[in-house]
Amino acid sequence: MASQELALKLQRRLQWEEAEEGRPQPAPRAFAALELESESPAWAPTACADAELSAQLTRRLDINQGTARPRRCKVFNPYTEFPEFSRRLIKDLESKFKLYDAGRDGFIDLMELKLMMEKLGAPQTHLGLKNMIKEVDEDFDGQLSFREFLLIFHKAAAGELGEDSGLMALAKLSEIDVAQEGVKGAKDFFEAKVQALSCASKFEAELKAEQDEQKQEEEKRRLRQAAFRELKAAFST
């Protein structure tokens, strides 16, 4: 649909320029006036707009044909772009994303999404799967990146997804057991989560808790190693 709109816009632009060329030209004016016009040509904005429109149309056609090269983008930091999510939640969602990324290419394509929805107990039609991807597909590559995957849960928490949409089913089934909590429970869950994670200090508290947990694990490992050395020394004597 977007490619057709761009094509129609480009066609209308070309028709308008052809009509302009067919009109009678104005009579020559004074040399000073012509020199003034030459300093700021009127065709420059039109040429720039045509070039931009043509580039967008070419990009869209390449994407539809599967020949478009991926664009370089800035480094994605989920913790800064989605501050409403806790570190633990982002890591859990990253694990789920990698679980269904069977190709290990950093994307969930149409077939991988199909398998994911089937395992979650909410199978979708081919058209339904395409619409799910389209709703969060920011770069129009026909697959889900990790950022777009997180965007699903961001939209779900913000109430931007329909209750009967495939993405809402994915968000609910990935977070909680809807069969036990019910649809209302799922909605209350997302609303409570947004309120609980709205404080900026939440991130720092979770980071500190994670560091403390790592220190405890290291201390337990050190004690186990010391106990093993003592036991080994006792058997050696």
Automatic annotation (TrEMBL):
The keyword Repeat belongs to this UniProt entry's keyword annotation: yes
Organism listed in the record: Odobenus rosmarus divergens
Keywords of this entry: Calcium, Metal-binding, Repeat
Taxonomic lineage from the root: Eukaryota, Metazoa, Chordata, Craniata, Vertebrata
Pfam family membership, one: AIF-1
Name the UniProt record assigns to this protein: EF-hand domain-containing protein D1
One GO molecular-function entry: calcium ion sensor activity
InterPro entries according to UniProt: AIF-1_EF_pair, EF-hand-dom_pair, EF_hand_dom, EFHD1/2
Domain EF-hand: 88-123, 124-159
Cellular component GO terms held in the UniProt record: mitochondrial inner membrane
UniProt entry tagged with the keyword Repeat: yes
